[in-house]
Amino acid sequence: MPIKTRLLNALNAFIKYEQDGDDQFPNLGPSSYVRPDKPRLMLYNDRSLISSIYTRLSIDVAGVDVRHVVVDGFKRYLNEAESSLNDCLTFEPNIDQGPRQFIQDAALTLFDKGVMAIVPIETSEDPSLSKSYDVFQLRIGHIVDWYPQHVKVSIYNEIKGVRQEIILAKRAVAVVENPFYSVMNETNSTLQRLVRKLALLDSVDEATGSGKLDLIIQLPYVIKSEARQQQAEKRRQEIEFQLRGSQYGIAYTDGTEKITQLNRPAENNLLKQIEYLTNQLFSQLGLTPEVMNGTADEKVMVAYFNRTIEPILDAITQAVQRSFIGIERVKKGERIKYFRDPFKLVPVSDLAEIADKFSRNEILTSNEIRGFLGFMPHNDPKADKLLNSNMPQPTSNELAQPTQ
Fold first, then answer.
1. What does the pLDDT look like over 280-318, one tens digit per residue?
2. Which range is most confident: 5-14, 122-131, 373-382?
3. Ranges of H-type helices in 286-346
4. Cα separation, 106 vs 173, whole angstroms
């Protein structure tokens, strides 16, 4: 760009704001010190071990690409569909979120609420009147009330800047239920039992650290008359005053008085129960400590993906496909599919051998393999052909000769 053109068209955000001031934004709508469209976990899930499990699962779900694609008669992937729905899934579902953040929002809401709804905010036609329409904007909401043919959904309204409850037809939204609902969201499920045990442990810890001594003082006389009770109350206040005024918390008593200290330490089996429920929850969800701390090998991660992540992705993609594509477009070969990078978990030491097998057996071209490695495609025409470079290739003269 020429220097003169650049100087004429250049814009500095700070200089523009100083020139125009707040007058350039006459009405921005309501403001908030936190992001209003961000999903909020339930209180007991947000402040416990459960939030780390939800976050780990949602990040792994969002790490898989979801696309609107076209398949052939054998249900084999051909190419991505050129549709606004695919733009939502791969580029911008709404003004506040990218595709990965959108899928993570969907997974978090699914885990926390048990059921969530993917709502088409902007469409080319009324979804309640048409079965074939384009979707231009998507948002995640949680279902508040259920009706025979409709649902009431709490969803963020970007025009007003607040969450709003609206009633929509079930066929107009993609309703997704958590595949692990009986493990995570049922009243007496393993996760809910773990939540209650964690709450009990927190209450015990608060009582232990509250500064109370929980002492019982046995005085050397019977406390039945009012005078004796007043004398006992005075003695209790004296001991409290001694402990409060002492630098090291030391008090003295008479040799005939006996002091019993309660729950020091608090002996219970809550911790063992929590450890047991945590192990049960991990096994039922297909999680392992190695997956949580990032040290799992390839075999463990493949099992984790097949047992845990794949059912969640299947539930989301099938709901979107049923609601936003419809049976007629499905018959024409349109699908919602998810794609996982097969080389993401492969060590560098094994990558060369895998690349050799894929190219030797004419499964991938050299440029396709270079794309997985993050290299630019080579301009050699041979790099875009499926051929075995270890075998001699026939020349053009040999190909032109007729066979006998």
1. 999 999 999 899 988 888 889 989 999 999 999 999 999
2. 122-131
3. 289-293, 298-304, 310-320, 326-331
4. 13
Can you point out the beta strands (E) in 213-367? 215-218, 258-261, 334-339
User: Tell me: the pLDDT tens digits for 171-181?
Assistant: 999 999 999 99
C-alpha–C-alpha distance, residues 283 and 190, integer Å: 11
| Separation of alpha carbons 247 and 51, rounded Å | 41
Give yes or no for a contact between 161 and 241, defined as CB atoms under 8 angstroms apart.
Answer: no
Q: Residue 338: phi, psi to the nearest 5?
A: -120, 150
Output phi, psi for 176, to 5 deg: -120, 130
Closest CA to 146 of 172, 168, 121: 168
Q: Which amino acid is at 161?
A: G
Q: Which residues pair with 77 in a beta bridge?
A: 71
Distance CA 317, CA 323 (A): 10
Is the pLDDT at 32 greater than 80, yes or no? Answer: no
What whole-number distance in Å separates Cα of residue 181 and Cα of residue 176? 11
C-alpha atoms less than 13 angstroms from C-alpha of 332 in its C-beta half-sphere: 8
What are the sequence ranges of the domains in the chain? Answer: 36-202+289-340, 203-272, 347-398
pLDDT digits (tens, 9 = 90+) for 360-369: 888 888 888 7
Is the peptide bond prior to 26 cis by the omega test (within 30 degrees of 0)?
Answer: no
Using alpha carbons, list the distances in angstroms from residue 182 to 242, 307, 325.
55, 15, 29
pLDDT at 266 over 60: no
Higher pLDDT pick, 121 / 17: 121
For the purposes of burial, counting CB atoms within 10 Å of the CB of 156, is it exposed (0-12), middle (13-18) or buried (19 or more)?
Answer: buried
Q: Where are the alpha helices (DSSP H) in 71-140?
A: 84-90, 99-113
Residue 167's alpha-carbon distances to 105, 222, 366, in angstroms, are 21, 70, 52
